[in-house]
């Protein structure tokens, strides 16, 4: 929720209702003026699609995948992942394993995209089979020196993320990096384009690759009655237009991390040491909040610490985008999660200015609850899934890139496997992921849990921050302080 909209909702109900009505009138007038042109363009797109089908050159990308192709050469929308695996890398066995588990013998139809490249023909983005698919082009060895510590591994990730993946193959790659550290291990660095799938889809992909099907967190959502669904629809219809109008008219958010020049294209990575999930749950229980509330408040505290240490003015509130899954529990409980995008983002204001960690948690919970109860994320998700991809390329790209006007960073919180995984009989010790810098956003943060532990990771551009490890260290400092404060306030302690 934008700060502007939060202030609007603080108005008396009558005034807020009048503003909602006025916003509906404004959008109806805009629709009357633009609908004929939009319908004409949709007819043109329909004809393009018929050409694609008639000449059998491939099949069309889903409209909700198209916005992820609104990117630049310096900033491609690739999700990056890191797996640290015990033992020596046997690239031939890993290639064979991937062929068997996700290429040749997968009953989920969306996994065919792992063998297809993205091309543009007849004005439409289409999936087209690779010419002579070769797994050796997707799973390769790192040709540089083995890293001796985490800092060197981070530099390698930076080099890989800034490198080019050929356009004539499906947009994904695994790079195996032997490690020269304390244990005999290797890293598998994954790059996969967001047009293939989102974070939850990639967790499903990992579940297919590993030796045994992992135990995943099943999010229980309350079952909505027909009456509840009708109320939700009416809420979106009546309040959604004002949410859109307020976002369109709002000024750019104050972003202390905005690049003074264009993004350089050189990505920088950092991650924290493992944080025990039991400690996070203990804070959650003591404060009567959720794990997401605790982690978001901790991120806000880390941001305040970092900006203060750099001598920068930090705002009282910092507006971010939090990605959320929109799949139903039924889909998440299936054996195979389709490889697709089925998520949206909600604008949320982090209380960076609150110093006391417990007060910050309560304020974060209040704001998160307010956002979840609103219709904003539903209408924004609907526009992202069904409108942006249908617009003319220039208008769709402009709309996508307006995101960086309204947020300072992107925060992703995807629950990973609950148990330790194995690949080809070897234990996977570490799993970390980073969402892309969508729309040239300054920074992306990921909170990813794995086997009872959690890490916060940061990806940014060198033009924004040249020392992201300082921010991840301050996340740990803030969490330790928050935990100590929560325990000290525990009854009978």
Automatic annotation (TrEMBL):
Signal peptide: none annotated. Residues 341-482 form the O-acyltransferase WSD1 C-terminal domain. GO terms for biological process: triglyceride biosynthetic process. It holds the Pfam family WS_DGAT_C. Pathway: Lipid metabolism; Glycerolipid metabolism; triacylglycerol biosynthesis. One of its GO terms (molecular function) is diacylglycerol O-acyltransferase activity. InterPro entries: O-acyltransferase_WSD1-like, O-acyltransferase_WSD1_C, O-acyltransferase_WSD1_N. Residues 107-230 form the O-acyltransferase WSD1-like N-terminal domain. This is Diacylglycerol O-acyltransferase.
